[in-house]
Amino acid sequence: MFRKILVPLDGSELAERALQPALTLARPDGGELILMRVPLMERIAMPAPEGHGLLWPDQSFEQSQKESTEYLATVQKTYQQPSFTLRTLIVDGDVASSIVDTAAAEKVDLIVISTHGYSGLTRWMLGSVTERVLRGAACPVLVVRTESPVRRVVITLDGSELSEQALKPGFDLAAQTGSAVAVLRAIPEVPPHQIERLDEIETNLGKRFQEDLFTEAEAYLKECVARYAPPGLKVETRVMFGPAAYTLIKFAELESADVIVMATHGRTGLRRWAYGSVTDKVLHGALCNTLVIRPAEHQLN
Question: pTM score, two decimals?
Answer without folding.
Answer: 0.83
